[in-house]
Amino acid sequence: MPDLAFLFGQSLSGLTAAMFLFLVASGLSLIFGVLGVLNFAHGSFYMLGAYTTYQIVQWLGRDPGSFWWAALGAAVSIAILGGLIERFLFRHLYGADVLYQLLFTYALVLILSDAAKVLWGTGQLSVSRPPGLTGAFKLWGTFIPYYNLFVLLLGPTIALLFWLLLTRTRNGRLIRAAALDREMLGALGVNVDRLYTGVFVVGSFLAGLGGALIAPVKAVVPGMDVEIIVEAFIVVVIGGLGSFWGTMLGALVYGQVLAFGILIFPRFSIFSVFALMAVVLILRPWGLLGRPLKS
C-alpha cells in the first residue's frame, strides 16, 4: 500500500498535467463552442508554440527574463498565425460537414508538422526552466518543483480571467450570443466575422501558451502535436464540447485518472483514460457539464 506522501505526490503530478492540458483544451473547446469547427490542427499550434519558445530563447541568450519574453512572444506569434489561418482558410469551413473540417485540419497538421521539421529538424530540443523556478520545496514528504507550483496556480488564474471575460464584458456576451445564433447577431449589426477571428486568435493564443510553458518540462520534438490533440479531445469529450468549466473538470479528471491509473495498471495506464471516456460517452454523450445537442 503506497504511503500518503507518495499518493499526494501522484495527485500533484496529475494536477500539473491537468493544468497543461486545460490551457490547450480550453482553446479547442472555445473554438468549437463558438465557431462550430473541430480544429484538429490545434495541437500543431501547441507544438509551434514550444518550438517558437525554444527559438526565441536561443536568440535572447542567457538573459534572466529570456524565457518569459520567449513564452509571451511565442503565444502572441501563434495567436497571429491562428488569426491569419482563420481569416484565409477556416472561414470557408463554417457550416461545412464535420468530415470536411477534420480532413482539412488534418491536412493542415501535416503541413505544419513538415514545416517544423524543415525549420528545427527532427532531434529533441529543450528549454531550461526560468531562474527563480528551478528548485523545489518539500511539503508533506513530497518535493514539489517551483515551476510545477507556478503552473498549478496559473491554470485556475487563467480560467477565472476568461470566465470573467465571457460573463462580465460586452465582448464576452457577444461571444456567447454568437455561439447561440450567428445570423441574429449579424442582423443586429455586429461584425460576426471579426468576432470569429478574435475567438480563433484567443484559442490559438492558449494553445501557443501551453506549448511555451511545456517546453521546460518536456522535450520539444515532432509528433508532440498529435499526442496533445488526442489528450485534448479526450478532455473536452469528458467535460463537454463547448463547455469552459467542463473543460477544466475534464482536465482534472483526466490528470487524476492517468496519475493513479499508473499505480493500478502500470502497463495499461492510458487504457483507464479511454475506458473513462467510453463510459462518459455511453452515459452522457454530451459530456459531464455539456448540454445535449438539439435535434
3D architecture notes:
- This protein has a two-stranded antiparallel sheet.
- 72% of the residues lie in helices and 3% in strands.
- It has a domain at 18-222.
- It has 295 residues and is mainly α.
- The N and C termini lie far apart (49 Å).
- The chain has helices spanning 4-35, 42-60, 66-88, 98-120, 146-168, 170-180, 182-187, 192-214, 224-239, 244-264, 269-283, and strands at 136-139, 142-145.
- The chain contains eleven helices and two strands; from the N terminus they run ααααββααααααα.
Task: List the defining traits of the structure above.
single chain, 295 residues, mainly alpha, two-stranded antiparallel sheet, 11 helices, 3% strand
What topology does this entry show?
Blueprint: H1 4-35, H2 42-60, H3 66-88, H4 98-120, E1 136-139, E2 142-145, H5 146-168, H6 170-180, H7 182-187, H8 192-214, H9 224-239, H10 244-264, H11 269-283
Antiparallel strand pairs: 1-2
**Mean pLDDT figure:** 86
Radius of gyration: 19 Å
Number of helices: 11
Estimated helix fraction: over 70%
Distance between the termini: 49 Å
How much of the sequence lies in strands comes to under 5%
Q: What summary fits the major beta sheet?
A: 2 strands, antiparallel
pLDDT below 50 for ≥5 consecutive residues: which ranges? none
What is the element string, with H for helices and E for strands?
A: HHHHEEHHHHHHH
Query: Going across the major beta sheet, what is the strand order?
Result: 1-2
The overall strand count is 2
General form: globular
Structural class assignment: mainly alpha
